[in-house]
Amino acid sequence: MPSGNDGATVTFLKRELEASFVKIDSLESENHELKQEISRLKTQISTLKAHDLERKSTLWKKLQSSMDSSKDFNDPPQKTKLQVDVVLDHAPFKKSSSNNTEAKAMLPKPPPSPPQWLQRRVTAPPPPPPPLPSSPVGSKAVRRVPAVMEFYRSLMKRDTQKENKNGVVGVVSVTYSRDMIGEIENRSTYLTSIKSDVEKYGQLLNFLIREVQGAAFTEISDVEAFVKWLDGELSCLVDERAVLKHFPQWPERKADALREAAFSFRDLKNLESEVLAFKCVPKQPLVQSLRKMQALQDRQGGV
């Protein structure tokens, strides 16, 4: 009987053998897949070659046809020779020599032979077209010349060194830009009109500022009247916002709140007048009346 160590060794060898079989099966399946892939790639290569040959043949035919058409167009048409067969009767020909001269004068002269440069020459077949470039995309790419790049870098370095040496360049550029901005502002008619409004209506605007700051109302109708008066006074300005920016003490938030309250009160008054004027017409369909009521309720909720 085998001992315990021999049994363990046999078990280990069996496991290794099974693992080898499994590995062999996986390798065989992988080999089969690789063979299928190779066959597929071969068929793809053959189809691509066939497409390439067909494309080349069509291109060659097109080129040949274009060359033939251009050659036929360049060749001038040849003049056809005129042949005249004259049958003369022998009897009157023998009568007198004057008749011979008259007959010779009546015969048409043959056309002149065409010059040599008009005669069609038999030439050899045209040479085949040059092969197509292998990489057309690469030819369109931008080529960078290192000498030009180095020259550009040297110029940039020289400019930066000059700017570093002259420390006043920054201050001069800032002052120059300020002068340009000032000149543009002086030439603008819009900005000129705003400045003139600030100077012209300065006292009026200071008075309006004090009125808005001290405004306090208990009735909303007074707010509406005050906003209407304020808008009428500010209507003389070219641009209200731009002019009032020159007055930092202008209470912008309070003026906006008063205007919003006046507009809401005006909307409520209009809604109230529409509700009071609403009447149900017996001849009108009920659905239409309900829709009008719903629209009035929606407007009330929005206000």
UniProtKB/TrEMBL annotation:
GO BP terms: protein localization to cortical microtubule cytoskeleton
Composition bias type Pro residues, residue spans: 124-134
Region annotated Disordered, chain positions: 92-139
Coiled coil, from the record: 17-51
Domain of life: Eukaryota
GO cellular component: cortical microtubule
Keywords: Coiled coil
Name of this protein: Protein CHUP1, chloroplastic
Organism: Artemisia annua (Sweet wormwood)
